[in-house]
Design a protein that fits this description.
GO terms for molecular function: glycosyltransferase activity. It comes from Xanthocytophaga agilis. This is Glycosyltransferase. It holds the Pfam family Glycos_transf_1. It is an enzyme of class 2 (transferase). The structure is a single chain. This protein has 13 helices and 13 strands. The protein has about 375 residues and is of the alpha/beta class. It folds into 2 domains: about 200 residues, Rossmann fold, CATH 3.40.50; about 160 residues, 3-Layer(aba) Sandwich (Rossmann fold), CATH 3.40.50. It has a 7-stranded parallel beta sheet with strand order 3-2-1-4-5-6-7, sandwiched between helices. A 6-stranded parallel beta sheet has the order 10-9-8-11-12-13, with helices on both faces. The radius of gyration is 22 Å and the shape is globular.
Amino acid sequence: MKTIMSSYHCEPDRGSEFETGWQELLQLAAKCSDLIVVTRPFNREKAEKVFREKGISNTTFLFFDLPVAVNGFKKTSVGKQVVPYIWELILFFFLLKRYSRNQFQHAHRASVGSYRFPSLLWYFSPYFTWGPIASGEIVPIRFLSVFSWKGRVQEVLRLVLQHTSFVDPFVLSGLYKAQKIGVATTATRNILPPFVRKKAYLQPDYYVVNKNDFQVDFSAYKAKEEGVLKLLFVGRLLEWKGIMFILKALRQLEGKINYEFTIIGEGPDRAVFQQYAEKYKLKVSFLGAKPRRDLSSYYASHDLFVSLDMHGRGSFTMVEAKMHNLPVLALDITDPDKLTGEELMIIITTKQQSVKAIINQIAQVLLDKYTEQNPVPLCL
């Protein structure tokens, strides 16, 4: 079967949406005889090495990107929405120079995860699939109090975009033409128009993590430090990731526990968290981005992974942490569709709970975890 796939993000060992696109690529390559993958330029040498190791020889890459000046706009809040949208539209004309209508037997659009970005890939095949898509998750209004003013504006604008996207003819055409649509969460399925919901299926297992991607020989790492509760976050530094919940809980626990909070990753909201941590003299280390393969040493040497995403779709890092037997602290809206390793989940209830009550719950979990490891807390 001759297949074409498009993916705005598609790269191994990058996590998040990059990994989503990459895993979709690997799954399609295993099913078809001839696969064309069109994506943005990335580390081709790394991809070709993986393909040689896996014995994949049926895949050809096409690279397409917007001018540097346009891509530079993506650093702004508006640009993060506009640039991927433009890429999807201009991609159609890029492909139109090479392929004719219905030239392929199957077309698949993977990543960017949001349904708000259109796809015209259906023009090149009578059978079009799309997914996994997300972004139907809505942050409860009361949660906005933990955001900065900039973050609150962004979340309100996102709420508006979630619904106005369904009057966009380009978005609607892709949703209409698709025979099957994979959705990451039930919240995304529920926000789709009724005619789309009928052909949407839940795809929570798209978070695929290969143990071979990590150094998981735990004997190579030092034993966890006694007398210290070591917390870990890995991911993009965005306000909706819920890091502020943890910072506020740690502030509440001042003098009650001895802790270290390690944050790995970069993102536009790093300054928000860093300023708060410095203001209240919290023991937080911002280590920046780390190679994915090197994360095992952090997963293995910490006591609790925190992933309090307010957009409610879980993450690759949650799966990676549980793969390393590291317990995960999450909100009940973070992991609604049961990813894997549920016995390692510590869930914070948010239904009918105020922000203060949620922070109190988190603080109590951290205190209990510390007391479990160290029977006599510093101060009760």
